[in-house]
Specification:
This protein is α/β, with parallel strands linked by helices. It is about 30% helix and about 15% strand. A six-stranded parallel beta sheet has the order 7-6-8-9-10-11, sandwiched between helices. A five-stranded parallel beta sheet has the order 2-1-3-4-5, with helices on both faces. Strand 10, helix 10 and strand 11 form a beta-alpha-beta unit. Helix 4 packs across helix 6. The longest helix is centred in the last third of the chain and has 19 residues. The mean pLDDT is about 95.
Length: about 325
Amino acid sequence: MSKNIIFLDRATLPADYAFRFSFPHILAEHPQTAPEDTAARLAGAHIAATNKVRITAEHLAANPQLEMITVCATGSDHIDTAAARAAGVAVCNVPAYGSEAVAEHAFMLMIALMRNLPAYRRDLRAGLWQNSPFFCHFGAPIRDLHGKTLAVFGRGGIGGTLADYARAFGMHVVFAEHKNAAVVREGYVSFDTALRRADVLSLHCPLTPQTRHLIGEAELRALKPGAVLINCGRGGLVDETALLAALKYGTLGGAGLDVLEQEPPKSGNPLLKADLPHLIITPHIAWASDSARQKMCDTVAANIEAFAAGKPQNLVL
């Protein structure tokens, strides 16, 4: 039996990658899919591929023929996995394809902020070095990574890879336990201890109801003065209002974000308008190195082939 395969947001994947499958199939690819069009585009599909298009319980109920959802990413918080489980729909993801890419991006943000690279670029543009009375210009504090403590929230492939990079630079690394956890697992420190010890706090955990606004006003106040926050996970992990206040009026040393709560931020975002020298925002591209995107596409194709062969892999259910 031929399988109908639909890609809901193909434009988010490399244009030069050709998806080919060995089993009988009909492939339809849409560059993007608006929320109001999702149910109609799923009509008749047996396999749906989505990067960031949300698939809800209503979509599943309207399309009982759907057998598999393959997420073209690691995070699956845009899929109603409970409803999929109840409907017998397999949900697969692409684990660890971007471990190196995202960890490198987080490390880039970390080192740029610890050494206040954006602030010195601003000073240079303002002519402060040109008008210096001696050979250099002293401005924002410059901090070495060596001897500092990195607290990582999330001990998956990305968090573990980042920890390796940090240790190579002479940093101490701690992994934070879940917030409000009754027991601290071996190899972890408590959530509160991680906050107190961190010179750099880097978030690499999934967005769930339990982790939404994991870092808010209280947590930002608990950080030591000058600490740096990195978020290459999900925008909702951080309370953006509290973060902006901490950057403007608190003692936070800097923040590097690759994600925001609303993406793309078409209606604007106060963080984008802030123009602060100790804030770096990149447009959700930590994952998007050439090699990472190639690996992701290869795994998506392999997930679909494995499912069609009756041997599903990388199941998130």
